[in-house]
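Slide 14.
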Amino acid sequence: MPTFDEFLGGKVLLEQSQKGLRATSDAVLLASAVPIKKGETLLDVGAGNGVIGLCVNARVHCCLTSLECQSSLVKIIHQNAILNHTDINIIEHNLFHSKDPLKGKLFDHVVTNPPFYDNTGKGRQNDEQRLAYQAGFDLKKWLNYCLKHLKSKGSFCIIHRPEMMGKILSVSEKKLGKIEIFPIQTKLNQPATRVIIRGILGSKTPLKLYPPIIMHNPDGTRSELAEQILRYGKQIL
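Slide 15: predicted structure.
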């Protein structure tokens, strides 16, 4: 049986599999980094259950396209589009296959939350989780796919582990400018566990590194900034 979970203080209702892919704060944080304006187009590559696009749309109404390779998750995106009264162009496609259904199509914004973990890393209960979480793929090819569908002066946003920053920047710096890096820390004085990287296609503005987003206070409660982002959908700079 699926569960039905609220995000952004109830602005987004998400159907999720109990044992499959489940959305985390990573998706909401990433959605908050998309500098989108009303009516612009957004492509979510590896959309999972659709939560990123739905969170972006809850903040600013936009034109959503979700690309996802798993049939089970494509069905869930359809259900979540209905639950949230949102139109989503949902495409079932594995981006590593040669024929691209989006060939020649460009978007104002492209966002992605790719699989994070080594195949030898965290154990997962089923095939849906293994495909969604474990990074047994060519990240460079994944990034290039995202960037080839981005309009000039459009934004690209990704969330990943900090140790992958070098690989991400080695690809993105060839095409993006105005690259902005937002480290995410669980608590103050702890190492970053995630990093959001945002850039603009064709910009010449130099890279900026921002102060970390601290998720929790020393007593374990959610920080004020995290609360503004996760509950109220505040946009990161």
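Speaker note: The longest strand covers residues 150-160.
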